[in-house]
Structure formats: structure tokens, C-alpha cells
Amino acid sequence: MTVQHHVRVYKSAEDLPREEQLAFKIAQVAADPVEVDADVIDMIINRVIDNASVAAASLTRAPIVSARAQALDHPVSRGGAGASIFGLDEERTSPEWAAWANGVAVRELDYHDTFLAAEYSHPGDNIPPILAVAQHVGKDGNALVRGIATGYEIQMDLVRGISLHKHKIDHVAHIGPSAAAGIGTLLGLDAETIYQAVSQGLHTTTATRQSRKGEISTWKAHAPAFAGKMAVEAVDRAMRGQTSPSPIYEGEDGVIAWMLDGPDASYLVPLPAPGETKRAILDSYTKEHSAEYQAQAWIDLARKLGNENPALRDPANIASIVLHTSHHTHYVIGSGANDPQKYDPNASRETLDHSIPYIFAVALQDGAWHHVDSYAPERAGRADTVELWNKITTAEDAEWTRRYHSEDPDEKAFGGRVEITLTDGSTVVDEIAVADAHPLGARPFARADYIRKFRTLAEPVLEEAEIERFLDLAQRLPELSVDEVRELNIIAKPGLLDGIESPRGLF
């Protein structure tokens, strides 16, 4: 049975035994040698495939080229065989740099899984650092599965209990501890060592949300990879007997006291009880479309409306479009953010995928969404799209905010109600609660959908034999040998990456 752990700030003069600290409780969950349930294994396989899908589609994009070049400039460290880099065959690098390069590739298109509660998250960001360490030290598929289950569990439990965005702290601060815990499970470390790594993982990954505000830069893709890289390094330090700031969550000069809700803070963080299996991954959901998760349902509704009534695609017929939605959607990706960049046809891709007015306009006009074409500069700059786009605003609706935060999975929602006022005075009103691909949506994603997504995104950059090789390995994940885990990578078509100039830096 899940245990709700009360977390608050303690003055230095107060006694807070190590065993009562949240970081230690996380470590105890990671060290608990429970097996992984069959349905959890099945979903982990889905997410390994999903991560590879979006990484494949990103192999030639500038942030990945840069991160891959940095990784290649670092040789394999002495403690193991090294880890593979997405797209490359024989080349290996030190595990923290593989976590970095592969983490950027997974996040670049904002196209993998999501979990939203008190905080926001992409729990698939845990997979690159855990896999990199598994390849480096020589762990089999069963150990890898157990590590990934822990990474998902800890990140999602922290997301359920502790809001970061409310205080403008980036959500990757929950990845440092979760990835460190997952690596601890993978390696079979004791709770004391994992505790030190979890504390260090949090301490080094707290940063502001400016990376997701205004003109959004390429750092958005690097931020979770940085957290994964820090987690690998934190585990390394802890294994060498080094200690970390403590208590990192509850201390009077700790993260909660000075970065979050302050000295009077009070949280409840759910964690599995001793002996309880880790099942959090089953509550997460992936993306059918390459855009911020809160945009998923709106894309589905927009394409439906445009296909049913093509007249809605012509801005000459539209007086206004108002999306009544949750607080988060309104203030983070909607007009409530007060970011003029969200209406700028020259904005970066990273900015456009955080602009629901833009996304709704394009999906309405095109009746579809594409991870490249829908963000192309010529698409964003099309005159009729810009005109329609500027007629779209968002408004916070209390009921949709309540449903967004609901703990009841049957009513939790990420969509809203659209009111389209036409120039003739008539209106079109419709609503959607969850994306079509959501477990409660019109077409929930299953294994066949993950494989189809992988094939669609991988076919331009991987040979057919390579696609089949990877899918075979991924679908046998818990049975993989040490050598097979080291082959769990995607290798680009011959010559695909050869002509890409790698940027030079310090290394």
C-alpha cells in the first residue's frame, strides 16, 4: 500500500533522523528488491521504443549534433566498457556523456511521454542515464527494467506531491533524484549510497523556468539531459564515499525553504510501501503529436473541427476563437503567459510548440499535425495562418483547472472547451477532455501504435533491417543479456551523419 510521507522544513536545531528524510525514503524505495509486474514491463518496453522514435527523428537536428559532438570528444572512462550514442555504431563514450547526448535527442522534439500532477514531467527522461550506466558497467535487461521502473516511480511520486513551477523552478529538478534512484536500483546499491546520490542529484539540478519562458532556446532540450548527466555523476561520487548536502529537502537552508514553499511548507509525497511493486509508469501517457502535452487534446479537437467544417479554416469567416481551459494551459502555453513571442511567426520552434494559439490554428487549417512541417518557417509565416492565429486567445476556466488537478483518473483532463464566433454572429462550441491517444481517449496508444510511431519517425534515418533489429531487442527487454543491452541503440543509415559538420567547442 502506498505511504504518504509528510515533508516539511526543519530548523537545524531540530532533530530530523536520516531515516525520516525524504531523500532517504526515496533511497529505501530504490533499494527495495521487488520484482517488476508484467504490465509494467510491457509499458517500459513501449517507452523504450517511444524514446527511440523521437531520438531517431532528431538525429540531424542542431542541438543533437552539438550534444553528440561533445560526447564524442570524451573517451570511455576507465570503469567500464562505455555507453552507446544514438545514431552511431561502434563509437562509445563515458556514461554521463552518453546520458547527455541521448537525453538531448529524446527531448528535442518534445514528443515523448508525460505525467502532469502538482508538477509537470517527462518521465521518459530517466531512461537515457539509466541505460547508459547499464551499458557501461554491464547489466542485463532484467536489471535495466528494474532501474527504469524506479526512475519512473520516484519522478512521478515527486511530481504528485511537490510543485516546482509555482516557484518558477524548472521541472528537471525532479529528474536528478529520480534518475539517481533508478541508477541505484540498476546497480543494486545500498540505501545509504543511494541517499547520498539522490541528495546530490537534487542539489545540482535546481534552476529557474526561464528556459521555458519568452523566447525559448535550445536549452529546453538540454535541461533534462543535464539532470540525467548530473545523476550519473552523483552516483559516481556517492559510490566513492562522498557525502551530499543534508537534509536537502527539509533543511532550513534547503531546497524547500528557499526555492519552494518556504519555512512553513507542508507536502505529502506518496511512495510505495516496503515490498510494494513500482507501478507509477502506468499512470503516465505518451504523445501522438510533437508538441507540449497540454496541446495534444487541442490538436485532436482542432483537426476534427477543421475536417468537419472546412469553412472554419478561413480567417475571413472567424471573428474570434477562445479556448476555455486550465490554469496551466492558459498561463504557460496560452495567451495568459503574456509572451508576445507566442504570436510571432518568426519565433523559434521551441517557442511555437509552447504556443497553443499557433498550434490550434495550424491543426484547424491542416486537419493534421506533423513534427517537422507544422513548425516550418514557411508554415508559421503563411498570411492566412497568421491572421487566424491572432484571433485565438485562451481563458482560464475553474472547472477545467479543477479537472486538471483531479486525482481521479476518470475525470482528470487536459483539454477544454472551444468557442468559435463566426463573422455572421453564429458560434461553434465543442470540447475535449483528453487526447485521442490518452488511455481514456478515443484511440488509446497500445504496442502497435508505439511501433507505428517508431517506424514513421525512423524510416527516413534508419535502414529497415536496423528498425527490425532494434524492435526485436526492445520487445525482449527483460530477457536481454549484457551484450544485448549494449546493442540497445539505433544506428543511422550509412553516410547520414557523415556530411554534418560538428560544431567545435572547448573539448
Summarize the structure.
This protein has 507 residues and is of the alpha+beta class. 44% of the residues lie in helices and 9% in strands.
CATH topology of the largest domain: 2-methylcitrate dehydratase PrpD
Profile the largest sheet. Answer: 4 strands, mixed
CATH architecture of the largest domain: Orthogonal Bundle
User: What is the rounded Rg?
Assistant: 22 Å
End-to-end CA span: 49 Å
Strand order of the largest sheet: 8-7-9-10
Mean pLDDT score, rounded? 96
Name of the CATH class of the largest domain? Mainly Alpha
Description:
The chain is α+β, with helices and mostly antiparallel strands and 507 residues long. Helices cover 44% and strands 9% of the residues. The protein folds into two domains: 281 residues, 2-methylcitrate dehydratase PrpD (Orthogonal Bundle), CATH 1.10.4100.10; 140 residues, 2-methylcitrate dehydratase PrpD (60s Ribosomal Protein L30, Chain: A), CATH 3.30.1330. It is globular. It starts with a strand and ends in a 21-residue tail after the last helix. The mean pLDDT is 96.
Layout of SSEs?
Layout: E1 3-8, H1 22-31, H2 38-57, H3 62-72, E2 83-84, E3 92-93, H4 95-107, E4 115-116, E5 120-121, H5 127-137, H6 141-161, H7 175-187, H8 191-203, H9 219-239, H10 255-259, E6 266-271, H11 296-308, E7 318-325, H12 327-333, H13 349-352, H14 356-366, H15 377-380, H16 383-389, E8 392-396, H17 398-405, E9 416-422, E10 427-432, H18 447-458, H19 464-475, H20 482-486
Parallel strand pairs: 7-8
Antiparallel strand pairs: 1-6, 2-3, 4-5, 7-9, 9-10
Helix pairs in contact: 1-7, 1-8, 2-4, 2-18, 3-4, 4-5, 4-9, 5-6, 5-7, 5-9, 6-7, 7-8, 7-9, 8-9, 11-14, 14-16
